[in-house]
Design goal:
The protein has about 290 residues and is mostly helical. InterPro entries: HEPPP_synth_su1 (IPR009920), Isoprenoid_synthase_dom_sf (IPR008949).
Length: about 290
């Protein structure tokens, strides 16, 4: 298939009334999905299955992301919140089950094995990060790196299949785009004190802040006014904009080195929203 229509196909699994009425879902992994589809279509051996592989992988990712939204505590008394939590668990399980069903129907047993191994690796990485977070041993740099690895892992499972055509281009491009995606999301998190805990800014201040500031961050209910003061003091938004600008320039240079003009054009088109956002950075930085 030449036309990318994965989100439309996925709607038959995601747009159930029960889910839409009683809970919310994470964003569809649009950027990574489009990247995978573009690379698969450029491989003559894999292109006939590009739509199937991309759909299955995106549904697994959506299932994992949905489970990540489930609150840690099961002691929810309010009926609406409890139902939302239960539906997130069920929806995540359902999306993951669709991956098995789609690939098994197509006789793609080897691909089921590849993605299943990738799911195990995602969970291993998450547990390592969770342990470091609980011990407050995570640096801001490590937070970005680990988040990129977790978000990339399912899609990286295709690296072996693409090596004969793209060599090491697929893992490099995937990780680079995913890093842009992560920094992009962190910029918006930095604009809200309510979403600050566990963000890049949180780990940066925990790493570089004073003893009193670190103590303030470790409180169960951090004072949002003080959080905003810390965000401003440490120029969190400004640093993130600079990181995005630097990485976008590196990504653009890497893409231009690819052999396929068609793929280069498609990759720039896929990353256009982030690239367009990065272009506006100088104006934003002046306002910070």
């Amino acid at each position: 298939m030449n036309s990318y229509r994965i989100p439309e196909i996925a709607k038959q699994y995601t747009e159930y009334d029960m889910i839409q009425i009683h809970t919310d879902l994470p964003d569809f992994p649009e950027l990574r999905s489009r990247l995978l589809y573009a690379f698969l279509n450029g491989n003559t051996k894999l292109s006939p299955s590009s739509e199937l592989y991309t759909l299955a992988t995106s549904l697994v990712q959506l299932g994992l992301d949905t489970h990540d939204m489930v609150t840690a505590s099961n002691e929810i008394k309010e009926k609406k919140a409890a139902r939302s939590r239960q539906l997130k668990v069920l929806a995540g399980d359902y999306f993951s089950s669709r991956f098995y069903h789609l690939l098994s129907q197509a006789g793609q047993i080897e691909m089921i094995k590849q993605l299943s191994n990738a799911i195990c690796e995602v969970n291993r990485l998450k547990m390592n990060v969770y342990t470091k977070m609980k011990q407050f041993k995570l640096t801001a740099e490590d937070y970005i790196h680990q988040t990129v690895e977790i978000k990339s892992q399912l899609f990286l499972s295709f690296s072996e299949f693409m090596a004969d055509v793209y060599d090491h281009a697929w893992p490099e491009v995937l990780r680079s785009y995913t890093k842009c995606e992560v920094i992009f999301e962190e910029i918006f998190r930095a604009e809200s004190a309510a979403n600050f805990h566990g963000s890049w800014g949180f780990w940066h201040i925990l790493q570089h802040g004073t003893k009193e500031e670190r103590k303030q961050l470790n409180l169960d209910e951090a004072d949002q006014a003080k959080v905003r003061t810390l965000l401003h003091k440490y120029n969190i938004s400004s640093q993130l904009y600079q990181m995005l600008d630097q990485h976008v320039k590196q990504l653009q240079a890497s893409i231009r080195q690819l052999d396929s003009d068609k793929l280069i054009s498609e990759l720039f088109h896929i990353g256009e929203p982030i690239l367009r956002f990065a272009v506006k950075q100088p104006q934003v930085l002046e306002e910070i």
